[in-house]
Amino acid sequence: MLAMQQISLSSFASALEITETDAEALLAGGLPLTEEIAGKLETLLDLPAHFWLGLEASYRSDLKK
Fold first, then answer.
1. Which of 6, 9, 23, 25 has the most CB atoms at less than 10 Å from its CB?
2. pLDDT number for residue 50
3. Does residue 22 fall inside a structural domain?
4. DSSP conformation letters of 11-62
5. What angle do CA 36, 51, 4 make, to 5 degrees?
6. pLDDT tens digits for 3-44?
7. Is residue 50 part of a domain?
8. Do residues 17 and 26 touch, judged by C-beta distance below 8 A?
9. 37 in a domain, yes or no?
10. CA distance 9 to 21
11. InterPro entries under this entry (predicted)?
C-alpha cells in the first residue's frame, strides 16, 4: 500500500496498470471506473473496491441528471 502522499501520474498509472492517458481520463471522470481498476485501487489505497464502485455509480448517476 502506498502511504497517503502525492504520487506522480506515471506512478499512479503504473500501479493501476493503465496508460498515463487513461489515468488522466479516469481522474477527470472521462473513463469509467471498472471492477478491475476498483480492485487495484483497493490494494493501492486500502479502501474496498465497493467503495470506489459506489462512488463511480453515484458520479455517473449525477451526470445523467
1. 23
2. 97
3. yes
4. HHHHHHTS-HHHHHHHHHT-SPPPHHHHHHHHHHHS--HHHHHHHHHHHHHH
5. 90
6. 557 889 999 999 999 999 999 999 999 999 999 999 999 998
7. yes
8. no
9. yes
10. 9
11. Lambda_DNA-bd_dom_sf
Pick the residue with more confidence: 42 or 1? 42
Structurally, the chain folds into a number of domains equal to 1
Separation between Cα atoms, residue 33 and residue 47, nearest integer Å: 15
Task: Report CA-CA distances (Å) from 58 to 7, 23, 32.
Answer: 26, 20, 12
Question: pTM of the prediction?
Answer: 0.82
Whether residue 16 contacts residue 23, with contact meaning beta carbons closer than 8 Å, is answered with yes
* Any domain includes 3: no
Q: What is the pLDDT of residue 33?
A: 96
